Amino acid sequence: MTAEARSDWIRALIGRPLRLPALFEQALTHGSASADHYERLEFLGDRVLGLVIGEWLFDLYPHEPEGKLSSRLNMLVSGESCADIARDLGIGAQMILGKQARDDGANDSTNVLGDMMEALIGALFLDGGLEDARTLIRRLWATKVEGAAHAPKHPKSELQEWAAANRRKSPVYVLTDRSGPHHNLRFTVTVSIPNVGEASATGASKQEAETAAARTLLEQIA
């Protein structure tokens, strides 16, 4: 991917010329390719995303309590959600990677895709302000935000509630494996409830693996 083609892609994404093109290139640059990489912009974009989604949910669901709004927010700003949107946009093909990261599959890493999505939001915030960032986020997240009539219940909370309602001991989560290169770590977690069952799952973070394991166990006992 040439720098010119990457700039064209970013212009098409945000719908206007770039004022600070170097910021967007930084947002798509992995640490394996340059010391001037995406992580600081990802830090900023994460906060901007949380603010915009939080404001949106506050307006969209005026009668929901804080707990339900928080459940919606946590799911919408999760690394998995950001990575899903990044994949839909084709961010993997735009990444600037060092050879090792490219060979290790960083362009399809949930961690890297999610972080670079947030980095692009951070770059857009600096390039055009909150309103430009809000416009992009609302366009990209519209289906996820408005498509759920009910606040999602986190699988770990649902499993905990199931155990309590059925007079069982609380679920126990154990990290059983951690592997892969730094930019594409994979975590395997096993969750068990004594005298009920257990399930294992793998994810890009310990939290993601725990969530997936809880979901799998819920499916087994439903």
Task: Describe this structure in a few short sentences.
Belongs to the ribonuclease III family. It is an enzyme of class 3 (hydrolase). The protein has 222 residues and is mainly alpha-helical.
Q: How many domains make up the 3D coordinates?
A: 2
Order of strands in the sheet with most strands: 1-2-3
* Strand content range: 5-15%
Structural class designation: mainly alpha
How many helices? 10
GO molecular function: double-stranded RNA binding; metal ion binding; ribonuclease III activity; rRNA binding
Keywords: Cytoplasm, Endonuclease, Hydrolase, Magnesium, Metal-binding, mRNA processing, Nuclease, RNA-binding, rRNA processing, rRNA-binding, tRNA processing
Pfam family, one: Ribonucleas_3_3
Active site: 46, 118
Which features would summarize this protein structure in a list?
single chain, 222 residues, Ribonuclease iii, N-terminal Endonuclease Domain, Chain A, Double Stranded RNA Binding Domain, 2 domains, 10 helices, 3 strands, 10% strand, flat, double-stranded RNA binding, rRNA binding, mRNA processing, metal ion binding
